[in-house]
Amino acid sequence: MEPPISLGERDLRDRKLDVLRSVRPLTDEAVMRRTRRARYLPGLIADRNVPAYVDEEGVDPARGTETFAEVELELDSWRWTGTTFRLRTGKALGADRMEVVVRFRDVPHLPFGHSGEARPNILRFGLEPESLPLDLTGIGSRTHTFAPLELTARMDPPELPAYGRLLLDVLNGDPALSTRGDEAEEAWRVFAPVLSGWSRGLTPLEEYPAGSDGPASDHDGEQAGS
């Protein structure tokens, strides 16, 4: 979102609403190209054998319920046009992770004499636990080859978990971080075409082993978080 004039509840939530309003609507063709859904097969998580989702107690396989979802969105705005926002979540994955990953654009030119692949720089905002790793590509002074570098800052653990802080704000009469009615309506506008397309079978239901990183992806260096 754009910087709010203040951190007051109206200014902050108005800017969040602007972002949702700028999300490009998803057509049926976009749902087929820009969304994925899957559910997990039997697998091993840590030392625990996990059955397939369809074999879990109370699950009706005929409903085709997914346990993994991925959606690519684009914003029609001055700042973010041409940037893809990929939202991904899943169950029964190899690791529990909540993070925001910023993948910078590839370098347009490599200096003469350098060999190897220059991977894009990646900035990660870890949400639980809170951390700030920056993955960079450096150049060896003698070999002139590319080498990965990582800079990491770890934050002190908060006194309350995220939802605890949110509920405390509500009890204190501060709704700034709560979802306003018009914000919820815009969020449903964004995702209603996805749910409609999935119910009509526009996106096939893929599969992935429990304990894996989710269904195979063409996005190098990116993994799902549960």
Report on this model:
- With 226 residues, this protein is of the alpha+beta class.
- The chain has a single domain, classed as Dihydrodipicolinate Reductase, domain 2, CATH 3.30.360.
- The chain has four helices and ten strands.
- The protein has helices at 9-21, 28-34, 162-171, 181-199, and strands spanning 35-41, 43-45, 48-50, 68-74, 84-90, 98-103, 122-128, 130-139, 146-154, 205-209.
- It has a four-stranded mixed sheet. The chain has a four-stranded antiparallel sheet with strand order 6-7-8-9, with no helix packed on it.
- A hairpin with a 1-residue loop joins strand 7 and strand 8.
- Helix 1 packs parallel to helix 4.
- The radius of gyration is 21 Å and the shape is globular.
- The model has no long low-confidence stretch (mean pLDDT 88).
Descriptive keywords:
about 230 residues, alpha+beta, Dihydrodipicolinate Reductase, domain 2, four-stranded antiparallel beta sheet, 4 helices, globular
Q: What is the strand and helix layout of this fold?
A:
Elements: H1 9-21, H2 28-34, E1 35-41, E2 43-45, E3 48-50, E4 68-74, E5 84-90, E6 98-103, E7 122-128, E8 130-139, E9 146-154, H3 162-171, H4 181-199, E10 205-209
Parallel strand pairs: 1-10
Antiparallel strand pairs: 1-4, 2-3, 4-5, 6-7, 7-8, 8-9
Helix pairs in contact: 1-4
